[in-house]
Amino acid sequence: MLAIPWNSAMLLHLRYDRSPSDLPSHCDGCGERFSVTHALSCTKGGLVLQRHNEVRDELSDLAAKAFIPSAVRDEPRVQLSRSAATDASPSSDSPVVLTPSEERGDLLIRGLWQRGTDGIIDVRVINLDAASHCRKDPDKVLRNGERDKKRKYLDACLSQRRHFTPFVVSADGLLGAETEALAKRISALLAAKWERPYSVVRGYVNARLSLAILRARHLCMRGSRVPAGTMSYRRYLWDADGALALFR
User: Fold this and answer.
1) What's the whole-model pTM score?
2) Partner residues linked to 123 by β-bridges
3) pLDDT above 50 (res 40)
4) Which residues have a Cβ under 8 Å from the Cβ of 93 and sit 6 or more positions away?
5) Which domain of life is it from (predicted)?
6) Cα 36 to Cα 53: distance, rounded to the nearest angstrom
7) pLDDT value at 43 more than 50
8) Quick check: is 36 in a domain?
């Protein structure tokens, strides 16, 4: 009898809304009872952040293929705060200095929607099974996620003559409306660049995004939440003797 690989078995369980049988009984990060919903929501160990980064990196790779690698930048500053002399009145002619803030998007793509205009993208992965979302319509939850991103970043981007696109997906693989539009844009550029039918390239892009979301979901369910500092405090010191020891 041919055994089903464990990752394929997990995918089949999740597809039919069943929990895999080999999940741990308790979370190794917070000690709560472990379940699929808890795995996708627990913030201990940084796996939720890694889930976000998995989707972001896949989008960055697709964008680099559609444009050129130098047109894609990561973590662009979004908001610029205006500051001037504290004793200057609002009607004075004192120069206004734009200072960068710590608010950052995930990607900046030059020429995303229009030639010569930058587009900033911010990624969000939503767990639709969380207590705050499980009783809501999934499409509405994704729309609310896009609306929150636009409320936070859109005005600041427009004031800098840049476009802003929220990239909101669910941990189950659903794509928001803005995400669908961005996937179509990347697919059209790749189809023209590779001289392939649009339908074929669109399927390729959708498959890449779906697999990235699946890897991100799998990471939250199978990854370790135990901090590395609790396992070992020893750090290798790269002093002169230590570095030379590698070449002996």
Assistant:
1) 0.79
2) 167
3) yes
4) none
5) Eukaryota
6) 20
7) yes
8) no
pLDDT digits (tens, 9 = 90+) for 198-234: 999 999 999 999 999 988 988 888 888 887 767 766 6
What is the side-by-side order of every strand in the sheet holding 163-170? Answer: 72-74, 107-110, 118-126, 163-170
Residue type, 118: D
In a domain, 11, yes or no: no
159 lies in a domain? yes
Pairing mode, strands 97-100 and 72-74: unpaired
Q: Tokens 């010191």 appear where? A: 237
Sole residue written with tokens 């206004």: 96
Distance, in Å, from the CA atom of 223 to the CA atom of 202, rounded to the nearest integer, reads: 31
Q: Which residue range is the domain that position 167 belongs to?
A: 50-84+94-219
Region of 100 (left: φ > 0; alpha: ψ -120 to 50; beta: rest) is beta
Alpha-carbon distance 151 to 165, whole Å? 12
Please tell me the total count of domains within the chain.
1
